[in-house]
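Reminder to self: tokens first, then the designed residues, so the page reads top to bottom the way the pipeline ran.
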């Protein structure tokens, strides 16, 4: 089947799903099979809250070797949003192709469609409510840009990847002697670590790494970035990531990510012990004391880790940012900070994730002046710049706050 025919079939099924299934108040698999001719229920999931469904998910096989994933999101028993995703067999693999999003009144608001060029480069097309007219496109995977290694201190950015095709980063990418990337996508296991956390699904990527990287290159223009897309499907790959970062000459790991599952980070911790790398990690944004509610790797007690959190310009812990008198080392101002997003547009960002690149940039500048420093000596140099906060006098962080980490 041609791509055009596949898209038309996907569009037809998605429109039918909205028309036939969205209006059914308490949708069940039997209802869906009855209302949508040519479909067979495969799976039904209902997420309750105090006995009232908050999310209903149905997986349906449909004629033509396709599948529909239907999701109704409710609040207080009232529909807030309806989504349907169409997937089709391509060879032996079931591939998502398109999504429709409708409001609580079952009116289609937008569509999304995956598109591939030259067998590798991928795009997400945003469609109008007719599911045909293109609104705009965003890149999901792109070729590595040409250029030369900039020299300077190498920083491994471990995040959702990087929009490395933006002109903003072209002269800040660490490369081998042939100009190729030193980074890697440990999620998809390919050489193109393009920015996109697809844990919410392929049509709703989270773009986190690019704004983080923009802070590093602004506050440390001599930094050479090695982008890594973190391995959410298999976190044991973090050991290989650390080994690759070290072999590529990285001195710093900038890691604005984490989870509450300590076992996900055991491979990373064991690997980090073996290398003279300084990992700078975020405390998280749950508004909790992570001494009591650990987050990893932030709560790991390895010597070559610095855990950072966000403060306002006056040294007060930012609302929603995590803290810990033992687990969190430093606060820095990281609220409403200027960033560049994956489209190359200017914006603002806040949270402990954005404290990480500020300290990473400081580490780059220190190493530029004294490249012989070990990871622990570098950590000591950073800590020496911290002072007690004038507002958070105790119980928030172990070392203190740095009022202006961009200053030498």
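Designed residues (408 positions):
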């Amino acid at each position: 089947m041609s791509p055009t025919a596949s898209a038309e079939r996907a569009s037809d099924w998605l429109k039918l799903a909205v028309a036939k299934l969205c209006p059914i108040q308490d949708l069940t698999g039997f209802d869906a099979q009855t209302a949508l001719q040519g479909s067979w229920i495969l799976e039904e999931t209902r997420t309750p809250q105090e006995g009232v469904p908050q999310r209903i998910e149905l997986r349906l096989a449909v004629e033509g070797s396709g599948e529909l994933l239907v999701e109704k999101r409710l609040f207080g028993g009232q529909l807030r949003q309806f989504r349907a995703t169409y997937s089709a067999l391509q060879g032996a693999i079931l591939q998502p192709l398109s999504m429709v999003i409708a409001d609580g009144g079952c009116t289609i608001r937008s569509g999304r469609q995956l598109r591939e060029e030259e067998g590798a480069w991928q795009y997400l097309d945003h469609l109008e409510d007719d599911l045909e007219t293109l609104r705009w496109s965003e890149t999901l995977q792109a070729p590595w840009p040409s250029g030369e290694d900039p020299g300077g201190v190498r920083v491994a950015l471990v995040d959702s990847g990087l929009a490395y095709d933006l002109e903003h980063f072209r002269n800040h990418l660490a490369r081998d002697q042939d100009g190729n990337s030193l980074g890697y996508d440990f999620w998809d296991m390919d050489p193109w670590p393009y920015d996109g956390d697809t844990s919410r699904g392929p049509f709703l990527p989270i773009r986190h790494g690019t704004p983080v990287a923009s802070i590093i290159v602004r506050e440390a223009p001599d930094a050479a970035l090695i982008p890594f897309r973190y391995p959410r499907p298999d976190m044991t790959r973090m050991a290989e990531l650390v080994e690759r970062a070290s072999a590529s000459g990285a001195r710093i790991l900038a890691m604005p990510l984490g989870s509450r599952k300590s076992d996900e980070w055991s491979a990373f911790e064991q690997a980090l012990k073996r290398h003279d790398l300084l990992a700078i990690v975020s405390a998280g944004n749950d508004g909790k004391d992570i001494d009591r509610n650990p987050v990893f790797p932030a709560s790991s007690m390895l010597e070559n880790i610095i855990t950072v959190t966000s403060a306002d310009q006056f040294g007060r812990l930012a609302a929603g940012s995590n803290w810990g008198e033992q687990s969190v080392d430093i606060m820095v101002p990281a609220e409403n900070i200027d960033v560049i997003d994956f489209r190359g547009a200017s914006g603002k960002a806040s949270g402990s994730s954005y404290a990480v690149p500020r300290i990473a940039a400081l580490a780059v500048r220190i190493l530029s002046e004294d490249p012989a420093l070990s990871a622990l000596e570098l950590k000591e140099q950073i800590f020496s710049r911290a002072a007690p906060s004038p507002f958070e006098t105790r119980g928030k962080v172990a070392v203190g706050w740095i009022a202006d980490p961009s200053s030498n």
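The chain has two domains: 3-141, 154-401.
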